[in-house]
From TrEMBL:
<dbReference type="InterPro" id="IPR015422">
    <property type="entry name" value="PyrdxlP-dep_Trfase_small"/>
</dbReference>
<keyword id="KW-0808">Transferase</keyword>
<dbReference type="GO" id="GO:0008483">
    <property type="term" value="F:transaminase activity"/>
</dbReference>
<protein>
    <submittedName>
        <fullName>Aspartate aminotransferase family protein</fullName>
    </submittedName>
</protein>
<dbReference type="InterPro" id="IPR015424">
    <property type="entry name" value="PyrdxlP-dep_Trfase"/>
</dbReference>
<keyword id="KW-0663">Pyridoxal phosphate</keyword>
<keyword id="KW-0032">Aminotransferase</keyword>
<dbReference type="InterPro" id="IPR015421">
    <property type="entry name" value="PyrdxlP-dep_Trfase_major"/>
</dbReference>
<dbReference type="Pfam" id="PF00202">
    <property type="entry name" value="Aminotran_3"/>
</dbReference>
<dbReference type="InterPro" id="IPR005814">
    <property type="entry name" value="Aminotrans_3"/>
</dbReference>
<dbReference type="InterPro" id="IPR049704">
    <property type="entry name" value="Aminotrans_3_PPA_site"/>
</dbReference>
<dbReference type="GO" id="GO:0030170">
    <property type="term" value="F:pyridoxal phosphate binding"/>
</dbReference>
<comment type="similarity">
    <text>Belongs to the class-III pyridoxal-phosphate-dependent aminotransferase family.</text>
</comment>
Length: 444
């Protein structure tokens, strides 16, 4: 496992930069906290975005195949107009009686299974997961949280403690138990559910023995930070049942797989045929405007709400609701999940064809417009695989296409374009990846 907190980043002195960018980085370093990182060996200097594209000050276009924050594309005109119109009227909070909040809440919960009929708004996915953990601990009376071994669930103190992805310097809570996924462990698909169930059951047993008990199983249903381990559908079901039997809640982190990203379903957990107790939403919800939510079953929501306050000044503000409402309108009206299915299949097939010519493409995993591609042959050292993946990512960046890496070893390409991706974007991506793979391979 890599110990670098962000392998795909700019390191001063490694890359010669034009004076304009070097001066801006110097000013940035002089005023921003040291926790900030710039992505790519040569940082991308952006001044505007439109649809699938980002533009630098010289007008050079970068095809964005990484960014799920503007889920419907950068600066979507319909969403931008909805935000501007609402901002020109009023930006109010949820303590005032305001109909648009209720209208959107009704529309949002209607996209979930009927059992999940309550929503509380937040500003970010981190806040959503933080609140979901508070609810789970209140309802269960326990503290233990079960997560995958390289999970990321946010940046607040509470969720950083359940996010092994943040690195060894960020201490995990003593009440956290990490489980190994069947895919990275090399478990065959036919044994995946049994493996996952056994891992969860063992974690529950250990938490009980230590007097902690299990409050929640918290998972991202495509396990994106672990390397996009999405199959076989349903492999998490036994673990879900085990947690509920032990008195814990099931929390589906939908910040990355939600809002039609997986194509066939609006919500990632639906691929697995389960209904969680709580689902947490974030980044794509407002197409970049900070808004999130926890959607869940009535009983835990009411139990928590009757005994604890949750008042978040900006959560559910009317400008955020206007943005989220416009996002949902476009998603449903334009059948964006269906488009993600079709374009995702084209992207998967294109990468599959490249795998027949480039042996460094080891495996491809795909659900809708979320794809993980393992780099390096199975017998190559972990450090070499990671370096090759970073070479590919930065080679793509140099040719004007943006992707990144994921997984415990950061040797999996993370390909996650906005959901408005079209066939010509896919074709350009495949052509560029083909060239970069050939060049990286020849340089070794």
């Amino acid at each position: 496992m890599t110990t670098d907190l962000m392998p795909n980043r700019y390191r001063p002195g490694e890359t010669a930069l034009p004076e304009r960018e070097a001066a801006l980085i110097a000013r940035r370093d002089a005023v921003l906290g040291a926790s900030y990182r710039l992505q790519y060996r040569t940082p991308v200097h952006v001044v505007r975005g439109e649809g699938m594209w980002l533009y630098d000050p010289d007008g050079r276009a970068y095809l964005d195949f990484y960014n799920n924050v503007p889920s419907l594309g950068h600066c979507h005109p319909e969403i931008t107009a909805a935000m501007a119109d609402q901002a020109a009227r009023i930006s109010a909070n949820t303590r005032y009686l305001e109909p648009r909040l209720v209208d959107y809440a009704e529309r949002l919960v209607a996209t979930f299974p009927k059992a999940m009929d309550r929503v509380v708004f937040t500003c970010t996915g981190s806040e959503s997961n933080d609140l979901a953990l508070r609810i789970a601990r209140h309802v269960s009376g326990h503290e233990g949280v079960i997560v995958s071994s390289y999970a990321y669930h946010g940046t607040s103190a509470a969720v950083a403690e359940v996010s092994p992805n943040l690195g060894d310097a960020v201490r995990l809570s003593p009440s956290v138990r990490m489980i190994d996924l069947p895919g990275p462990a090399g478990v065959p698909a036919g044994e995946a559910q049994a493996h996952f169930t056994a891992q969860v059951t063992a974690a529950i047993h250990d938490l009980d023995r230590r007097g902690i008990g299990v409050a929640a199983l918290l998972f991202d249903s495509i396990f994106s930070s672990d390397g996009v381990w999405i199959d076989p559908p349903g492999f998490i079901a036994g673990g879900v049942d085990a947690v509920r039997t032990a008195g814990g809640l099931v929390i589906a982190d939908e910040v990355q797989p939600g809002f039609g990203r997986t194509g066939a379903h609006m919500w990632g957990f639906e691929r697995h045929g389960i209904v969680p107790d709580l689902a947490t939403l974030g980044k794509p919800m407002g197409n970049g405007f900070p808004i999130g939510a926890v959607v869940g079953r009535r009983d835990p929501m009411e139990s928590f709400g009757q005994t604890a306050r949750y008042s978040n000044t900006f959560a559910g503000n009317t400008v955020g609701i206007a943005a989220a409402d416009a996002v949902l309108t476009v998603l449903q009206r334009d059948d964006i999940p269906g488009q993600a299915t079709r374009i995702g299949a084209r992207l998967r097939d294109g990468i599959g064809a490249l795998a027949n010519r480039h042996e460094m493409l080891r495996a491809v995993r795909q659900a809708g417009l979320f794809i993980g591609v393992d780099i390096g042959t199975s017998d190559s050292p972990a450090q070499q695989r990671r370096r090759m993946a970073l070479d590919v990512v930065n080679g793509m960046r140099d040719e004007g296409v943006l992707i990144s890496t994921t997984g415990a070893n950061e040797d999996t390409l993370k390909i996650r374009p906005p959901l408005v991706c079209q066939p010509d974007h896919v074709d350009r991506f495949i052509e560029t990846l083909d060239r970069v793979l050939g060049r990286v391979s020849n340089e070794r």
